[in-house]
Amino acid sequence: MTNASNPFRGRVAPSPTGFLHIAVARAALYNWLSARKLGGQFILRIEDTDRARYVEGSLDNIKSGLRWLGLDWDEGPDVGGPYGPYVQSERLPIYHEYIQKLLASGHAYETYYSKEELDAIREEVGEADPVTFNRRIQSMPEEEKARRRAAGVKPAVLFKMPEDGETVVYDEIRGEIRFPNKSLRDPVLLKSDGFPTYHFAAMVDDGLMKITDVLRGVEWLPSLPLHVQVIQALGWETPRFYHLSLFLDPSGKGKMSKRKGSNEYPIFVHQLREMGYLPEALLNWIALMGWAEASGDREVYTIPELIQAFDLGRVRAAPAAVDYDKAEWLNGVHIRMLAPDDLARRLVPFMQAAGFDVTAEGIAPMVPLIQERIANLTEAVDLLDFFFVTPPAPDPAELTPKKLTPAEVVSELLAARETLAGLEPFDAASIEAALRGMAQARGIKPGDLFTILRVALSSKRVAPPLFGAIACLGRTTTLARIDRALGILQPA
Ligand code: GLU
Which residue numbers are catalytic? Predict the structure, then answer.
């Protein structure tokens, strides 16, 4: 059923049972990179057949997260495509049609046992003996079936696993794996409520959607033999399967899945977005958790570079530790790669969320002052706030460097005020030259003078580079804040 003329059709198939996790983002990214590189398609399919685990809001969270990352899907919800619908709960008639085919060909059978009875039989027979379990289920007497049918019991449909031989499967990352068929229990394909299980719906959809490459979490590897059996029973060609490794926590010892997106261990895309990560930095970081180029240790990639370099053949089986230090470092690198106007635009929502009514044009002049200094967008707020609102009055102790008296600070402030009041042009280079000249002429350490001014203007000791900041603040505001500091040091 795969389409030989198509180089690549990959899908990400999240269930709306939670927020967009970096593991799903990684599967989406590897698919998207392959599709973009090879001229294929990236498909989004929503696997929402498990009604009990549905989480309100998760579907929007998943779609908006993928869009924010820039992983646009060629087929799927909201965009459509030739093999839709792309939401499994809208495909129930399709699953029923293929169930009928498997029933007719003898690959599947109905059972009138309830889920609870199946669980009880499984327990009684023991995990180690699937064949006995399968035979027990298959051998419900016809009269009993008829009785239950008459009582209104709806059957579930199970797949009939072969009892002999072995199923040979191939994982593109790990190679060939052989499973003795007698080790496999007959899986449920269709539940008695008429909804398919993952085992069935995903295989039908991958076939009908002509998926060439299935990338999914390694937790599905044990189910691969039964998936291959189902695909073969449907008479379709098996796609290539890639089972992506788990994430480990930053220590590399524990499973990351145990950490449920705490602030210390953010694992959801929206969390990382709120923390001030750029989508291109996150994609760079996520790409490296499970893949590397043959040539070694390259770590920084733009998106076009990733598309060029990425190769599914180099995805690793070894689990990757989630390294937040690397994420932060990469984010800083990507922030520095942005055009200043672009960075200004991206800072707007963070400034607005902090209560500053700003535009990208309003922020743009200050961007060169902070671009080299921030590792995430949220850090900009603390560096830029004093440009947009008058900061709280500076603390006299902060204004007074060690070994200087308040009276000396007053005299320096007055001199600086005079220097700046008449300075032309009022730009960073002239301001620097004038203040350094003033420090030398007066015999004050330049560092002390700059500290006094920094605190007078921003009420902080750590602020963006002083001369550029003074130029951005402008003469009027600069002089007003110097006056305020003078007022604090010499109460009337
Ligand atoms: N709906 C499955 C899950 O969320 C998808 C697995 C797959 O990609 O096939 O785990």
Answer: 258
